[in-house]
């Protein structure tokens, strides 16, 4: 037995268990609020703002690289992903199941860590901003502060904000959701003139650019009625359209060859990528025995998708082999006739039914039977090791080179911007059908839609952007986040559209007030 193949889920369980124990300790630590170098003596500027900016990019990249925090909260809470317990693997005291069933509490470890990470990043950006950096560094620091505060606004609503000259004895003031929205907007608008344009097909899409700032502005304006209350404002929808048009004017556009977009080569689609190790996007879904040429521990056999989400794509309902009538974005699974020496034996997109090795032979499970990934999951617990379809969007075979741990995770891309513009047009009373079909025409075997309603557009965003961090944001905006889906009952509780403020944050800052319903 290769012990390494089976160690990853065990380590994951140990990590979560340790975290859960630590989470019950309510002693206040620096990390439970916002780190500050200030004391009673005032603010000490960072010695090298450019170096601190580089460190902050790396920190943000690390926050988005893991399978916990940002990814779990954005995707595992939705109809796209779930982590069923298989035997004892991925039980972790129910921490994953709570995300799927929307039964999290203010003590949830991933929620606490996301809160701490985002708030720390906001403060570190403020330190750079207040250290008299040159214009280019200032603009990028403002973008990164806006970027991290955007997710605080989206996840939690109200946002604590500490001035750089305030010491730990000062309780940070708390911005309302509308106030935080305004700060994000003002940071982005102030950053825009000092940012480089952003050129499609070049490596500078790994840092802040005008195109990235316009993309984030479009996200803000599209969700403004969620963040500020009230109904959709036509002026904000026009701002979405204007921001997307500005991105297109810089040469960005829809890229053909869907899964090639997620390789590390430059393209016209990628607006902003994080220098995040994408190993967790690959291995957290793969079965232990699936081909893992540069990951000696094998797959981690965790994340699966839901049958009903798979069914939203065109193609045969119960298989995904080559030629099953599937649209390009659903991907394909090699079968015995075409697995030989192709693609490491691994498919793209949704992996279902018998899986093969690169020599064309059938893969086996750990008991020696055929490795057949099932479509349906009947329970969140008590599953066999092959239960549930898997998703592989980032592939270890990166443009013909084995490169599972490349630091290239796309967060902003043009097809998302294109669909945001289509949605804004629809919310202004226009017809989004032509724009949505323009995207679909760039994806092979993806027929035109006869018409586009809100439900159709939400489904299209799911088909194009699955496991790219945006599903929760979309479901909340379309008022579907509290709806039922497989293995999750309807809650109907709008309070669940926000996560709770962590317990430790409330204890460390009496200015904070818990979100309703918690």
Automatic annotation (TrEMBL):
Recorded coiled-coil stretches: none
Pfam (any one): SusD_RagB
Annotated compartments: Cell outer membrane
RagB/SusD domain sequence ranges: 268-518
Domain SusD-like N-terminal: 90-222
InterPro entries: SusD-like_N, SusD_RagB_dom, TPR-like_helical_dom_sf
Record's keyword annotation contains Signal: yes
Keywords: Cell outer membrane, Membrane, Signal
Domain of life: Bacteria
Similarity section: Belongs to the SusD family.
Protein name according to UniProt: RagB/SusD family nutrient uptake outer membrane protein
Lineage: Bacteria, Pseudomonadati, Bacteroidota, Flavobacteriia, Flavobacteriales
């Amino acid at each position: 037995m290769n012990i390494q193949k089976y160690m990853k889920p065990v380590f994951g369980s140990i990590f979560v268990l340790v975290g859960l124990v630590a989470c019950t300790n309510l002693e206040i630590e620096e990390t439970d609020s916002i780190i500050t170098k200030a004391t009673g003596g005032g603010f000490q500027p960072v010695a090298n703002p450019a170096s601190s900016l580089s460190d902050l990019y790396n920190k943000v990249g690390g926050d988005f690289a893991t399978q916990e925090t940002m990814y779990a909260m954005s995707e595992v809470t939705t109809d796209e992903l779930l982590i069923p317990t298989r035997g004892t693997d991925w039980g972790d005291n129910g921490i994953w199941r709570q995300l799927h069933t929307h039964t999290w509490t203010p003590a949830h470890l991933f929620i606490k860590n996301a809160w701490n990470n985002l708030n720390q990043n906001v403060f570190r950006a403020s330190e750079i901003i207040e250290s008299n950096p040159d214009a280019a560094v200032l603009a990028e620091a403002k973008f990164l502060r806006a970027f991290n505060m955007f997710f605080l606004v989206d996840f939690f609503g109200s946002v604590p904000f500490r001035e750089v000259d305030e010491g730990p004895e000062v309780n940070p003031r708390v911005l309302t959701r509308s106030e935080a929205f305004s700060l994000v907007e003002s940071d982005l608008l102030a950053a825009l003139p000092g940012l480089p344009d952003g050129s499609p097909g070049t490596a500078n899409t790994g840092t802040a650019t005008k195109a990235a700032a316009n993309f984030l502005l479009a996200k803000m304006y599209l969700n403004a009625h969620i963040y500020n209350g009230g109904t959709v404002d036509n002026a904000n929808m026009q701002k979405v359209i204007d921001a997307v048009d500005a991105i297109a004017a810089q040469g960005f556009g829809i890229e053909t060859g869907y899964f090639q977009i997620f390789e590390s080569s430059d393209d016209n689609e990628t607006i902003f990528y994080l220098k995040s190790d994408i190993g967790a996007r690959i291995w957290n879904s793969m079965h232990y025995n699936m081909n893992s040429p540069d990951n000696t521990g094998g797959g981690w056999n965790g994340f699966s998708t839901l049958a009903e989400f798979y069914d939203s794509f065109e193609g045969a309902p119960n298989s995904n082999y080559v030629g099953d009538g599937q649209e390009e974005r659903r991907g394909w699974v090699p079968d015995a006739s075409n697995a030989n020496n192709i693609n490491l034996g691994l498919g793209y997109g949704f992996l279902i039914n018998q899986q093969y090795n690169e020599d064309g032979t059938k893969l086996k499970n750990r008991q020696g039977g055929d490795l057949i990934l099932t479509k349906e999951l009947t329970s969140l617990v008590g599953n066999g090791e092959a239960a549930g379809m898997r998703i592989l969007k980032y592939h270890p075979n990166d443009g013909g080179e084995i490169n599972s741990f490349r630091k290239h995770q796309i967060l902003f891309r043009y097809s998302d911007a294109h669909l945001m513009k289509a949605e804004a047009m629809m919310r202004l009373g226009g017809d989004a059908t032509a724009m949505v079909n323009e995207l679909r025409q760039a994806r092979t075997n993806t027929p035109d839609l006869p018409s586009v309603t809100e439900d159709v557009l939400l489904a299209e965003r799911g088909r194009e952007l699955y496991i790219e961090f945006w599903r929760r944001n979309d479901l909340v905006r379309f008022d579907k986040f509290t709806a039922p889906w497989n293995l999750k009952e309807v809650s109907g509780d709008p309070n669940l559209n926000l996560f709770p403020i962590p317990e430790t944050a409330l204890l460390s800052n009496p200015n904070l007030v818990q979100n309703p319903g918690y």
